[in-house]
Structure formats: structure tokens, C-alpha cells
Amino acid sequence: MLLSMSPKELNRVDVIRDISERRLRQKDAAELLKLSRRHIQRLVNQYRGQGPAGLVSLRRGKPSNRRYTPEFKQYVIGIVRQFYIDFGPTFANEKLREKHQLKLSTETLRQWMMAEGFWVSKRQAKPKVYQPRYRRECLGELVQIDGSHHDWFEGRAEKCCLTVYIDDATGRLMTLRFSDVESTFDYMNITRQYIEEHGKPIAFYSDKHSVFRLNRGEVKTGKQMTEFGRALFELNIDLICANSSQAKGRVERANKTLQDRLIKEMRLAGIDSIEEANAWLPEFIADFNQRFARTPYSLHDAHRPLRESSSELDDIFARQRSRVLTRSLTIQYDKVVYLIEPNDANNRLIGKPIMVYDYPDGTISIKHCGQPLTYSVFDKLRTVNQAAIVDNKRLSAVLAFAKQSQDLRENTPERTRSKRNISRAAQQRAMNIALMKESDTV
0.70 cut: is pTM over it? Predict the structure, then answer.
């Protein structure tokens, strides 16, 4: 005879058998099973009369006394079918409590809805099918881009981001570059390096990172674009955002391969910093492409020649902001007041918009219709030097801004630049490299 017993009942069988065969005292068994001696005696009597079957619970296989009646279950299912057919179990249970005064557990309702086909659990839901697509026809038609955050130096340096540009048609690594973060300035620097080496592709294919796309709900239908999107628009390069990571699987799979091969290659080469890695990456790219790149369907190169000059590229890959020149010939950008040189030509620009160019290397340029304007800086975040104010010929304009921010400076002893601005990690790294070069020349 087969018996269905729980682990607790199986453990009791061994103990009760030892008591029946006088190998164990009831007192010790009671402490072992954490039961009373009277209950131990009751179990012994059942075992002696019926054997192990006497220790099986009499409720086994019978419905619970706390179960809902079939009529109540059908009543709830009928309400759900009529009003809440597309609701989730938790939400539907809230409405049953609020509007119908029906109290039951969410898990019970979930099981009922699953049995009726109203709800499919996440474990049972079928994964979405992503059908493969053919590669593009030729080189430069579509370039997939992505940033991979990883411990690339295996603890020899801080964790950083590797930005990958890979051609869809050939699988060639077009550009690799390490950076501290995945910022707008980093993508601008890398894209400029790409187009100077290869030319302008037809389109870049990216994810929906905030560098590429404005994700705020109020601007999704507008014509605004990110700084990186604006730079590509001026270069006449399309930017396409993938709806899922599987859509840009070429670069995603390349990231996994690089996280294996590139890390080991850098370990063998003794590379311990971002600067050393960026200088060595062209050698790795050439070897990688020789091994894994494939021939495209068409030998036509879709890259277009770069016609913009170096100075034009500087302005395109800068953060651009429009400001209106005040009557005191001042503008404010990133909590800094810029004092435009007073002259007849600049006086005619009062009330007109002028452009502030924030370059990736940290420098600032102010222009009107492409013509640079001479300016001086008054930083509102720094302590005002009395001697400097006295010597400043434009004392009134400076004091006007100083008075407006006086309370803020007193109540906030330490402040930083605007948090809404794009990351300046790339700027800081570029400035540090420039300082190192100057020290080497000296």
C-alpha cells in the first residue's frame, strides 16, 4: 500500500517506531518532536493499531474548511469578466474591495483568473520573438553605436565605459574609445574621430539613451533634439533609435566579445589606464577586423566625404546655447556672467540673441552670426574680491549680478555648476591631457 506522507510525518514514523520498540523514551521523543507527552502517547497508539498509516493526517486529500464556496467563486469570476477582464490581479482585487465589498486574497484571485484565462503569469508568458534581419548592403550605410560599462582593467584602474562603433554590413569595428562616463561630450569626441577617419555614414543606430533622444513626455512629439542629435543634423547624418536591445544585436554581441578578448589583450599588453588603452586600441581594432570582419554584399562605400573645416567641426561638436544680450552687455551661462566688450558694434546687439559655444575641451566662445565676441568672465560662484570690483570699470553691471545672488551665496557656502548641464568628465580629462602636454614641452 502506497502512502502519501509529508516530511514531518516521515520524521515522526522513525521516532514513534523507536518508542514502540523501546529504544526511545516518550519524554525524549516529546522534546525531539516538540509535542506533549499525551500527544506522543496518542501517536504511539495509532502506530500500534494501524502502522505507519495511522500517522497520516486525516485531512489529507480533503478540501479546506476555509475554502470559498463554488457559488462565491463563480460570482467573483462573473464580476471580473464583466468589469475587470483586462485588469491585473492586484488592481482587480482593489476594485473588488472598493466597489463590491468583496474580500479575498490577491493570490487566490490570481489563481482564479489564470484558470479562467484572464491572466497569464510572467513565468508562463511566452517570450517575445525577435526575427533576424539581413545585414545592410554596404559599408557605412548603418553604424551601430553603444557604450559598455564594465571593469575593463580588472581593478588596475577605475571602472569606465567603452564606446563601440561597429558597421552593420561588415561587422567591422570602426572606432573604439574608453571614457570615464557615457556623456554627450564623449560621443561628440568619438564621432568627430570617426568622421575624420572614415567620412560621414548614412545613419547611426543607437539605443534610447538620453544622449540620443529626449525621453521626457512633454517633448516626445516636439521638434527639440539633444545636443548630439543637433550635431548629427548639422552634419546631415541620420540618428535612429532602436526600440529594444535585440534590434541592435550586432553591437550588443560585440560588447560581450570585447569584454572577453579585449580585457585579456590589455592584460597581456600591460595596459593600466584609459590614456594607454586609447593609444593602443587602433592596433587591437586592426587585428580584430582581420579575424572577424566579413565582406559586404556590395563593395560600394556609403561614407560621404567630410567637407566641413576644422573650425566648423569645433562649433558643430560644441554645446550650443542661445542667450539674449542685456543692456549692460552681459549674458549668463552655467552660473557665470560674461561681460561683452563695450563698443559701437556690440552696442547694436543689445536685445538680440547670441550663441554660447561650450567646447568639449572646456573652453567657451561667444559668437553672433559666426563672428566671435570679446568678453571677460565674472564667476558668480567665487568669492568677490573687493579690490577687483573697485578696479573693474564696469562696476555697476557686476554689482547688479552680485546683489541678486548675495543671499544665495551666504546661505549656500558650497555650490557647483548647474546639474542640468551635460557631464563635464570629458572636458576635465581633455584639460588634464592638455596641461600634461604643456608641462612636457616646458
Answer: no
